[in-house]
Amino acid sequence: MQEKVDTLQDEFCEGKVIDEDEARNLMAATALKFCKDTLDHLQETQEKAVVEAEVEENRIKDARGKLDALKQVFLSNESSGEVSRIAEERAKKWSQN
């Protein structure tokens, strides 16, 4: 039976065209699915990055506020030259570590 089908397909060149069209459709569908999966993954990654950036932004704002408060305390108690000297000493200490 399959031989008859193959013979008819060969005779009318129909089977090959159908197979090629099916193969093209399958490849296109596979490529589209891969693209969709990649886009979904990239979107998830971007959403996570946005959340992490917001968290870091809040941490920076908090640290900046604390730093400003410390500056006010030091500047009210010591001269600005003394604060600069202390800052330089601490910077040297951190750079050595």
Automatic annotation (TrEMBL):
Coiled-coil regions, chain positions: 39-73
Occurrences of domain NET2A-D/KIP1-like alpha-helical (ranges): 8-88
Record flagged with keyword Nucleotide-binding: no
This protein's record includes keyword Mitochondrion: no
Keywords: Coiled coil
InterPro entries found in the cross-reference section: NET2A-D/KIP1-like_dom
Protein name: NET2A-D/KIP1-like alpha-helical domain-containing protein
Species for this entry: Gossypium darwinii
Lineage: Eukaryota, Viridiplantae, Streptophyta, Embryophyta, Tracheophyta
